[in-house]
């Protein structure tokens, strides 16, 4: 096995297709939402979503990275009983991690609504959006199982299908002039329930065909034994929990800080810039997901020496491709915003260009964070993310009151690049050190 552009594109094509398809549909959705709500109400909606995601991240143990790592290891060692316990532990952890933030928002929704979005968001909006937490309890497990079995076609189909249904409903609400904050919240709750049913069906099928396991036969009663039998899994997951929590804060606290110092309209303009730049994240996420699986398999099979030369070649090949893509995007986005969203949102273009530049440079280093985790340096990633979060917040508090969403865009862009650069330097250094020792 080796890492190459061809292998990455082959294995990530399903995820990339699903991501691109969903992104295109969401662009259509965002047009309807922005037109129906306007900049001010869009700012209120962005605040609801950002706060809910932050609350969820505080309570959610992210099982995905740890589950992938040890699913690969136990499969290669043919340890079926450990796989069964690993899957049961991951599912119970995810279910618990989604129930707690939902209850938190339900209990404190009146207090939350009174102090965010300048009091324009009602408690019921937070509660309705938080119901989506409950419906994603099996998503991580199905994703990791499908990736381990190299069966990502259904993942792609599900992603596009669910997004298509959501966009169709939003379009219908828009044309009948019923699209508002309340109908948006109800619709997202409904879509989340549909997604939950689809995931349960596909997960059970993949477990039967891939591991000869039925979801109901997993050792649920041995959950507390996993603290002893899977102690490395818990250690890994604890580290990823901390880093993911702070990563989520990095991605979402900008909206809350911007809302505290500026108007809802300025928040809405900045949110549009972030949304438009999200297309680069689609490619990054699909490649990152697949290469993380490849890294774990290479390391588990003792083929670490292949990593450095392959990554250098991949990164160099991405530079000319990304340069052309960035030029085309920057030339076409201004007229796109003006024509589709209208003059109210045209000030989002320079913000988009700044954020997009940070994502583009980080795209070249898409392998950095997956490699750090594969090498078991998850605690190092925690340090990097936590330190970058506090530095980012300091810069936001200093510059945003005076320079508004422009300062926020620069801070976001620089922070994204710095995290990936620091992780890349550390990862390459440790791989070379490992090769030298062996």
Keywords:
438 residues; mainly alpha; 15 helices; single chain
Q: What would a concise description of this structure say?
A:
The protein is built from 15 helices and no strands. By secondary structure, it is mostly helical. The two termini are 19 Å apart.
Tell me about this structure.
- With 438 residues, the protein is mainly alpha-helical.
- It is built from 15 helices and no strands.
- Helix 1 crosses helix 3.
- The mean pLDDT is 82.
Helical content stands at over 70%
Low-confidence region ranges: none
The helix/strand series, from N terminus to C terminus, equals HHHHHHHHHHHHHHH
Question: What's the rounded overall pLDDT mean?
Answer: 82
Based on DSSP secondary structure assignment, what is the total number of beta strands? 0
What is the rounded distance between the termini?
19 Å
Helix and strand content put the structural class at: mainly alpha
- Morphology call: globular
Beta-strand residue fraction: under 5%
| Number of helical stretches of at least 4 residues | 15
What would you report as the Rg, rounded to the nearest angstrom? 22 Å
The main sheet comes to: none
Walk me through the topology:
Layout: H1 5-59, H2 64-76, H3 80-115, H4 123-134, H5 139-148, H6 153-175, H7 181-211, H8 226-229, H9 231-261, H10 264-277, H11 279-300, H12 307-340, H13 348-364, H14 368-374, H15 378-437
Helix pairs in contact: 1-3, 1-4, 1-6, 1-9, 1-10, 1-11, 2-3, 2-5, 2-9, 2-11, 3-4, 4-7, 5-7, 6-7, 9-15, 10-13, 11-13, 11-14, 12-13, 13-15, 14-15
